[in-house]
């Protein structure tokens, strides 16, 4: 089945320059760390929509077409050390193959003050890295994250909620980009935005959607009806499946499920409010 896009006369070949400039300016405001290039943290990075466009715009411009096709044709592989994460496809011999376009998460990793963000399950760099340039206190990092959210809000007028618009791993974004099954509701809006700003010009069969994100989204969609029936065991089983059966979707809807399971165990399914 042809899931690729053909290049048409009207298709833009580069991302919107204003958006490009905004992301570039944001990234320039981040501190730098003396990363030891061990490659340990290089899982498929979670990034916002605007960052995904920026990252793959770099890939489109700076990777050889054959390398980009090979990257997209290779199914994601689970990372052996970071549960629920796949390896970043840009990692080559423990070096970043797309350094100038890498995401904010990649740029932030290793900054000691991130520990204060208290994000459940967030790993820290296990090496002792030094901040070599720029501000790195937690107040500044929080302000920076808010600025990133605002750039995304300007990009998609339907807002930043639900939270997946703020962060999906790059394999999930690729699935949405390539898979026509996402052409509905809010995902349809996202696909149109992606395609308006990013022309990967990759013909089939170079990409095969691989995270099963679509199936997971469908299960999340039927959750309210299960809750409405008050079927405690059914809701529990569905939540566990959403949490465990789609490891290549990374953190998507993981924390939400964990919180809902806690509430169900303590009070029953009628106390959760899936949206
Ligand atoms: S940030 Fe830390 S874990 Fe990641 S590659 Fe650099 S030294 Fe390794
Ligand atoms: S984009 Fe580069 S720095 Fe970020 S996870 Fe991939 S290889 Fe590592």
Strand order of the largest sheet: 1-5
Number of beta strands: 6
Which whole number gives the mean pLDDT? 83
Discrete helix count: 10
Strand content: under 5%
The separation of the N and C termini measures 33 Å
Shape: globular
The low-confidence runs, each spanning 5 or more residues with pLDDT under 50, are 1-12
Question: What is the domain total for the residues?
Answer: 2
Order of helices and strands: HEEHHEEHEHEHHHHH
Radius of gyration: 19 Å
Largest sheet: 2 strands, antiparallel
**Range of helix content:** 40-55%
Counting helices, strands and paired strands, the structural category is mainly alpha
What small-molecule ligands were found? iron/sulfur cluster
List the helices and strands and how they pair.
Layout lengths: L16 H12 L3 E2 L12 E2 L1 H14 L2 H9 L17 E2 L2 E2 L7 H5 L22 E3 L4 H18 L12 E2 H9 L6 H13 L15 H16 L3 H13 L9 H14 L8
Antiparallel strand pairs: 1-5, 2-6, 3-4
The structure holds iron/sulfur cluster (SF4) (2 copies).
Write a structural description.
The protein has 275 residues and is mainly alpha-helical. It has two domains: 17-197, no CATH class; 213-271, no CATH class. The protein has ten helices and six strands. The strands form three sheets. The protein has a two-stranded antiparallel sheet. A two-stranded antiparallel sheet has the order 2-6. A two-stranded antiparallel sheet has the order 3-4. A hairpin with a 2-residue loop joins strand 3 (91-92) and strand 4. The model is unreliable at 1-12 (pLDDT under 50). One iron/sulfur cluster binds at residues 35-41, 109-110, 125, 127, 129.
């Amino acid at each position: 089945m042809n899931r690729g896009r053909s290049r048409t006369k009207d298709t833009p070949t580069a991302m919107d320059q204003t958006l490009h400039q905004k992301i570039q300016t944001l990234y320039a405001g981040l501190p730098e760390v003396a990363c030891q290039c061990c490659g340990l943290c290089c899982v498929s990075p979670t990034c916002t929509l605007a960052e995904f466009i920026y990252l793959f715009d770099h890939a489109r411009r700076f990777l050889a077409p054959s390398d980009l096709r090979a990257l997209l044709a290779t199914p994601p592989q689970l990372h052996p050390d970071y549960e629920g994460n796949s390896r970043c496809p840009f990692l080559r011999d423990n070096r970043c193959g797309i350094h100038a376009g890498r995401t904010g998460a990649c740029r932030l990793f290793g900054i000691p003050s991130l520990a204060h963000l208290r994000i459940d399950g967030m790993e820290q760099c296990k090496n002792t890295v030094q901040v070599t340039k720029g501000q790195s206190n937690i107040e500044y990092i929080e302000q920076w994250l808010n600025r990133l959210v605002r750039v995304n809000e300007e990009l998609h007028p339907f807002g930043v909620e639900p939270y997946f618009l703020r962060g999906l791993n790059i394999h999930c974004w690729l699935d949405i980009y390539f898979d026509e099954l996402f052409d509905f509701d809010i995902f349809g809006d996202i696909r149109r935005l992606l395609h308006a700003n990013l022309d990967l010009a990759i013909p089939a069969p170079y990409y095969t959607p691989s995270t099963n994100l679509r199936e997971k989204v469908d299960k999340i969609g039927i959750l309210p009806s299960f809750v409405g029936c008050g079927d405690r065991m059914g809701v529990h089983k569905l939540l566990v499946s959403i949490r465990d059966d789609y490891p290549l979707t990374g953190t998507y809807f993981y924390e939400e499920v964990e919180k809902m399971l806690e509430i169900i165990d303590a009070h029953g399914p009628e106390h959760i409010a899936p949206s």
